[in-house]
Amino acid sequence: MKNSLHTLLKLTNFELERLSKFLFTLMGLTLLINLAGYIYTPTQYMGRINEYLTQNSATADEAVKAFGHFSFYTVTNTLWIGGPIALGISGLLFYSVFIWYREWFGKNTFAYRLLMLPVSRMTLYFSKFIVIFIGIFSLIATQMVSLFIGYPIVSAIIESPYFRELSLIESIQMNPLFLFFFPLDFGYFVIVNGVGFVVLLVLFTVILMERSFGVKGIVLGIVYSLIALAAVLLPLFLPDLLNNRYLLYGSELMIIETILLTTVGVLSLFMSRHLINKKITV
Amino acid sequence: MSKYIKSISLLLFITASLTGFGLYKAQASSPHPELKIVTSEGKPEHIEPIQTLGFVSDSQMPTQSSTVKLENGDFSYFEDLPFLQRLDFSFDPKINDLINDHRSFMRGKSRLPEHYTETEQHIIYTGMESDLHWNHHSSNQMIIAVLDKGSEKEETYSVSLGASGPFYSIRATSIDYPLLSVVVEDFSSSDAAETLVYTFDIENPAEGVTNVVNLTEETERNARIRLGLHYDNTERFITFQTVRQTAVSNYDYTEEISGYYAYDTQAHEVIDIQSFEDIETLLFTDNDTLYVGKALNEAIELYQIDLTGEEMSLISTIEMASPSILHETENYNGLFNQNLSILDGKFYAYGYEYTEDIGRPLFQVTDIETQETLFQGTIEPKDTSKRESTTINLFELQIDPENN
């Protein structure tokens, strides 16, 4: 047990080393684009205000009436913040596929060396899985830190008559995007991460199916993911199947969904174990 | 150890950020403004029967709003409820209470408050199959379910209304136990919907429903029927008004109230009520009594109808907290006077008090007999200086008869 845990740590560290350049680029881009947004958006607003004041000889109150107040929420609601989040999601989704295929599609088929290691192949599987989640949480943490840096910058650029005093947490809680990615609401946070967890397990299973059976594996993988999707979505159609919209309460539907997601996740894990141990040959 | 430096740094970074964020969130105040009841007259406990739901938003950021609930004089935000409770939450106070207290009975039943009546011993649900799923849109089956609160025993009956095919809509229900009165809108007629009253004897269910009165025929064929909103549904009368709609263009029409009526659930008769000329007429019912209100500028004169001679006698003149309450009477969803009602001798009114373009919900509770103002006040943010652009708009209101 201690030995396999040590191997898992070593392999995770190895995978993290390989991810690091890509991850640090994503983290850097997030910080950089966010920072540009923290400076550009309020500067542009103040520019418009100043232009209005000089052109119309207006007072600050009149300018506020014309342009409204500026708050940190205004910045969090722009593409300067939303863009890097979307980039991070798509980047890590891409890397979730790449993390497996890179072993086969190199100059040297590194997969052979990895799979021949005298450790359980599932340790390799788990190391890749953990690394993706470390990547996800690193980006979430970067976004959090970025907001803490951005708040004083925006407050400093906007002159007080035009600044709407919304606290940082108020600005964050008002943005629905953060409701899903930040632990603002424990229920939502667990659901989003739980769904992401299962999606990644299914994705890994599909990749291993393809690696095991080639083109047939792709078809098998698509069929498997469609069945998994249908199983998870089935409770949402129960009211239509039973001709009654009120038979199940929302909380009960959520519990059923959780059970089904767990089932799909566990099933994917066992299938992956079977495939990686028995079907992928070196 | 040095080869693990990146991994350890990343894990520390994640842990520190999430912990820091968690601590910051824990010490930060709620994003939803704290609200308070400002009593200008009377005692705040008289507002306790009022249950209401409203949106709290900021006039500068109108798309961002939270849902506030006022119950027993306390405010709570929907967003602060535990996750699973939020999923079961109904945006109607009456339905919400029924789900909380009788979860099993409410399973599989529609979520419209007019489908439920309650006595001390029973809860009666009356709904069409079409209310449960669109697949049943042409079903003529009415489901009546009776829950004995003491034994938790439920009896369900399925009865048919006329021919299948047309759409039936249950508009109101009223109970004079064991006789249930159900007001149904029947869309089978090609020109206009008809409103009929059916009765059902809960103690003798074998006979099914009986069509006792066709309100459309008894009043005005080409007019729409708008029902008075009652919070108790055990009153003897069901009040209604007839409304003539005249098209002024393809997209617009005007409305004219052509008559005021009450259906007597005991005598099964329609009572024609005289309206006031050139002055807005309001119609109320409470227990066994019918009231007509004359909406003056800053007061309402309440007249009680003598059922023997159908004459009216002035019983009370109530000064209103704001003249706008009487003339802002709300009519939507086929109902009228949603913001004014009488329950167990108390006159409840709500509207908005405007100061510098910001409206604050205003409530008034008055004893009809003594004309004493039991409560008058507004709902406002606690910190008005920071929250001057906070707006509160109520969208559901219920007066809890058991708490009255």
From TrEMBL, chain A:
Transmembrane segments: 21-40, 79-101, 122-141, 186-206, 218-238, 253-271
Source domain of life: Bacteria
Key words, A-Z: Membrane, Transmembrane, Transmembrane helix
Name of the protein in its database record: ABC-2 family transporter protein
Automatic annotation (TrEMBL), chain B:
Top-level division of the source organism's lineage: Bacteria
Protein name: Arylsulfotransferase (ASST)
